[in-house]
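Entry 14. Structure prediction run on the chain below.
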Amino acid sequence: MQSKIPLPTDNIYKFYALLGLLILLTTAIMFFIRHEHYNSMAFDRYIPMETLKAKETLNEDENLELFLYEQKAEIAKSNKDLELGIYLTCFFVFGGGFTAYGFHHWHTKIQPKQDRLLDLQIQKSENDVKAFNKQLHRTRYTRR
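Output returned:
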């Protein structure tokens, strides 16, 4: 089965630009998914933790359970800071750099050459039409 989506293989800079955009999009989606995951974990811990804190006297098991909830909250916060702050930021910067590099080089190196080639093709076609018209007028049979 062949893909119906054409890949940008005509120049490497277009590929870099589109790959960078894909990385940026994926990073943004992952940010929201992971952020929602960490919020969900925090909300799941919040009610039992606050219930235990509201009790005036806690037995040994409840003290241990409250301690574990607090430790899980601290670990989740540090994991969230690490994952969202470092990993996703690095991917976002990497994707943005790829995108900027690709679009800049595509716009400054490739596109002017393609524009010039298109202008030359138009000029050649216009010259061909003029030559053909001259050839038509030189023939001994004219249109009526």
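Helices lie at 12-54, 60-138.
Filed with the rest of this week's runs.
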